[in-house]
Design goal:
By secondary structure, the protein is of the alpha/beta class. The protein folds into 2 domains: 170 residues, no CATH class; 77 residues, no CATH class. It is built from 8 helices and 10 strands. Strands 1, 2, 3, 4, 5, 6, 7, 8, 9 and 10 form a 10-stranded mixed sheet that branches. The chain is globular, with a radius of gyration of 20 Å.
Length: 265
């Protein structure tokens, strides 16, 4: 994995704003960096934790914010009841911010509802944007005010801490979908999704493919150097379909690149 490309993919990821979430947004564009960053990334953690590590390093390297706390587990009666991602401080104003971060991939299923907010689901249909927002509102943000959290942060005034979320998303719509979206959704759309039969029918000799591991999801396909033909990915995709695991696929055709999910449902 190219470290610099992975960092840039997080820094430049689309962030859903208040018009969608109903929550104050912390956009990574607010972070002022003195220079391009290149830092060591751990190799043995999941994508979500990798994104947290990158955001942590970005904030620590910024000239306008400071990290006060990160990844603080809140424990009650010897049981972990939640974790607070970040407590950061804006240097100029002195404002302390409780920041919750998420890096998510959602697919639009128009059959679910007439309200777009209800139609963004995980690639394997086991999570959704609506559920994530509910968890943020009802569990993760209120955690700051739990008595056990107050004991952890006894050197800051909890009542003066503001709260914000950084919900970074890559969105995918059905293949050849003709519907329209609000601009905030539109700019986050990174590609489409289809089933294996449709994928196979679209193959031709001019196309090459790569199935990125999950730690590379969201990176720019054009920076990938290893490509194969349809037979090079066919068996892996079929096995994933049997296990009800959607595959992210990158496609190269001459100088054109696409990212799309092949789904089992």
């Amino acid at each position: 994995m190219k470290t610099h490309s992975r960092i840039l993919s997080i820094l430049n990821a689309n962030c859903l704003d208040f018009s969608i979430t109903g929550l104050r947004t912390f956009n990574l564009s607010e972070v002022i960096l003195a220079k391009d960053l290149e830092f060591q990334l751990p190799t043995n953690i999941r994508l979500g934790h990798l994104a947290e590590k990158i955001v942590s390093e970005l904030i620590k390297s910024s000239t306008n914010y400071r990290v006060l706390y990160e990844n603080i587990q809140i424990i009650e009666n010897k049981k972990t009841i939640g974790e607070i991602d970040f407590i950061i401080k804006e240097i100029a104003s002195g404002q302390v911010i409780h920041l919750e971060l998420a890096y998510k991939f959602y697919l639009f299923d128009p059959s679910l509802s007439s309200k777009p907010i209800n139609n963004w689901i995980g690639p394997n249909r086991n999570d959704s944007l609506r559920e994530k927002l509910e968890k943020l509102k009802r569990k993760q943000l209120p955690l700051l005010y739990h008595n056990c959290a107050k004991a952890k942060f006894n050197n800051i005034k909890i009542d003066e801490v503001s709260q914000a979320i950084c919900l970074l998303v890559s969105l995918f719509v059905p293949y050849e979908y003709k519907g329209s979206f609000s601009p905030i959704y539109e700019k986050a759309i990174q590609g489409f999704y289809l089933n294996f039969a449709t994928f196979a029918s679209l193959d031709n000799s001019g196309k090459e493919y790569h199935l990125p591991p999950k730690k590379e999801w969201g990176m720019n396909p054009s920076e990938n150097e290893n490509w194969t033909d349809f037979t090079g990915v066919e068996n892996f995709i079929k096995a994933s379909m049997k296990e009800k695991q959607a595959s992210l696929c990158w496609q190269k055709c001459k100088d054109s690149y696409l990212a799309f999910f092949i789904v089992w449902w």
